[in-house]
Amino acid sequence: MAKSAPRRILLNCLLDAALAALALPLALWLGVADAPPGAWWLLALPLAVASLLLAGWPLGLPRQYWRFAGLADAGAVLAAAGLGALLFAAGLLLAGAWQPPHPAFPLLHLLVLTACLGGARAATRALTQRRVSPLAAGTEVLVAGGAEAADLFIRAAARERQAHYRVLGILTQRSRQAGRRIQGHPILGAVEDASAVLEAMRNEGRLPTLLVLAGAEVQGPALETLLDAADRHGIPVKRAPQPTLLGVANRPEETARVELRPVAIEELLDRPQVPLDREGMARLVQGRRVLVTGAGGTIGGELARQVAALGPSSLTLLDHGEYVLYEIDLELRERHPELPRRAMLADVRDAARIRRLMEDVRPELVFHAAALKHVPMVEADPLEGLLTNAQGTRIVADAARAVGCQAMVFISTDKAVNPTSVMGASKRLAEMYCQALDLDGQREGAMRCITVRFGNVLGSTGSVVPLFRRQLERGGPLTVTHPDMRRYFMTVREAVGLVLQAAVVGTGEAASNLPELRDGGIFVLDMGQPVKIVDLARRMIRLAGLRPDEDVEIRFTGLRPGEKLYEELFHGQEPPRATPYPGLLMAAPRTGDSALVGRAMDEMAALAHGGNAKLALAQLGRLVPEFTHEAAAPARQAEQQR
Question: Once rounded to an integer, what is the mean pLDDT over residues 567-593?
Fold first, then answer.
């Protein structure tokens, strides 16, 4: 590639020299009545060529890529033509050769020279962009997205050496743009008009083969509406690369092409961004020592990323898994090399180790995300869930409080509401202890303990989405436990942003305006409407360009131990309370005395350490009376739903 560049520059010089030689007689023919003497041409033509080449070299004229000539190149052409015309006139004057009779000839020479140089470049660009006939072969596509993104995609597609996409029309975000054109292609309507537009195109016999999403403007519910319209007509939907990646089409490589990618299921749940108090988050974190437990997990890792960006004085990453801890530590080392950071292997169940660690780090802010979260796994080993989720939370909270930590944020789950699993009940018990500790902190001016409850996050290690992706890669089937199974979903970025928002509210002056928080209330993230898992499976199959139940089977396997058909974010006796902060709701479940709850938890932990599962679960049932640990519980939920 490097060897071919000098040849291209030499070719450009020769072409510009030929155009300069052509421009001179044209200018003389347009502005001079009597022809110059024959001998004059022997001096004038070489002088005109040399003047242009001399003027154009510092302006980069020989290095221009004619196929991609733009406004910046046009400016260089005009400047080179003007300077070249002046140098030519000055050369003739100094040589004392024949002078054109009209004094305005240098201006005329400039205009003709500009027309020749600029016209050749414009013609080259037009020919390369139109080398594929509008009727040429290529996938017929309908482009949807912002006008700027659609324009960029069309330009990139037009510059491919071999046409892969033929644009039939465009859907933009504004209905008032309908009827106008981008790069000669009609805007057929707005994104929300997709169903009507596709129906009209079907009636006209020109239904597109593919719908391309250009840019990132179409997300969430708008994207789901668009996908539904495409599904009805059997049209797959793919997303164009990011605008920065579309720049590949502006490079001179002949083989560059626009690679489309499937739409990610996370994009369907990417709701409008909730306004967050970023300044408050910065005040909370900046300059403070922060500890994140479970830092190798999905939630803990995202907490570590967002906290690191807020400028803590130090960040300690704690996890029991060596490899996941190594990964997040390496990532933060690359992203924030200046941040003082420690990665520490530790088990939150090891009270002595956690106590020594807290005394060493002396964190001012703790985010406790470490937990066992997979319901069937905890059902198989319930004592592990009790020791990690309940007793482990108590160990971390007590150790943090003992070293003067200002606040601990505990990550809870919707499975703690009316739990039917050991995992959910253990998290509810942890909630109870954190609530009691928070009440103590308010009375004594000690550590605040903020609890944040939410449902599933897309893409987490225990989420159904990675499972479905693996099953799709194998060709199916996709396994769903029950056709009526519903879950709340949220993207991990959105969930962690709201966790930080809850921490700001719970530890700031605004906490006094929330009476539920003063009584040990729990923050609950507004997760929208629950999603049927079978619908999620069907959507993922369609996003892969396949047909549910035809190309890929959906197989129902039955509810697993501890699973519920649907999760709840609020107990029946803790109705949701709105807060002034978008995305945050408040629950006020019952609280207990921290000393009493702590002693009961110690008894349960002793039973668990002794391997007495029956008595340990009985103690858990006494502490969490709404815990219904029986296989028939999911069936009763189904009956209640009907």
Answer: 77
Domain 278-640 classified CATH 3.40.50.300? Answer: no
Q: Is 545 left (phi over 0), alpha (psi -120 to 50) or beta?
A: left
Q: Name every residue whose Cβ is closer than 8 Å to that of residue 259 and which is 6 or more positions away in sequence.
A: 241
* pLDDT tens per residue across span 333-351: 999 999 999 999 999 999 9
Encode burial over 3-41: b for 16+ CB neighbours within 10 A, e otherwise.
Answer: eeeeeeeeebbebbbebbbebbbebbeebeeeeeeeeeb
For CA atoms 437, 439, 445, 450, the dihedral sign is positive
- Distance in angstroms (rounded) separating the CA atoms of residues 374 and 382: 11
Which pLDDT tens digit goes with each residue over 65-90?
676 676 777 888 888 888 888 888 88
**pLDDT tens-place string over residues 477-507:** 999 988 888 887 888 888 999 999 999 998 8
Alpha-carbon radius of gyration of the chain: 35
Q: What is the pLDDT of residues 157-216, one digit of tens each?
A: 776 666 678 888 888 887 777 778 787 788 888 888 888 999 999 998 889 988 888 877
> Quick one: pLDDT at residue 2?
42
Q: Judge whether 325 and 399 are in contact, CB under 8 Å.
A: no
Residues in CB range of 407: below 8 A, 6 or more apart: 364, 365, 366, 447, 448, 449, 450, 503, 506, 507
Homologous superfamily (CATH) of 139-263 is NAD(P)-binding Rossmann-like Domain (3.40.50.720)
- pTM of the shown model: 0.70
How many Å apart are CA 500 and CA 306, to the nearest integer?
9
Burial 162-171 (b: 16+ CB within 10 A, else e): ebbbbbbbbb
Query: What average pLDDT does this structure show over 378-383?
Result: 94
Determine how many CB atoms are found less than 10 A away from the CB of residue 479: 15
Asked if 399 and 354 touch (Cβ cutoff 8 Å), the reply is yes
**Pairing mode, strands 341-345 and 314-319:** parallel
Query: In sequence order, which residues have a C-beta less than 8 Å from that of residue 364 and are 6 or more positions away?
Result: 288, 289, 290, 405, 406, 407
The candidate with the shortest Cα–Cα distance to 416, out of 431, 398, 438, is 431
Q: Please report which helix (H) or strand (E) contains residue 27, including its range.
A: helix 4-31
Strand partners, 166: 140
Alpha-carbon distance of 415 to 563, in angstroms, equals: 9
Return the domain boundaries, the chain.
4-129, 139-263, 278-640
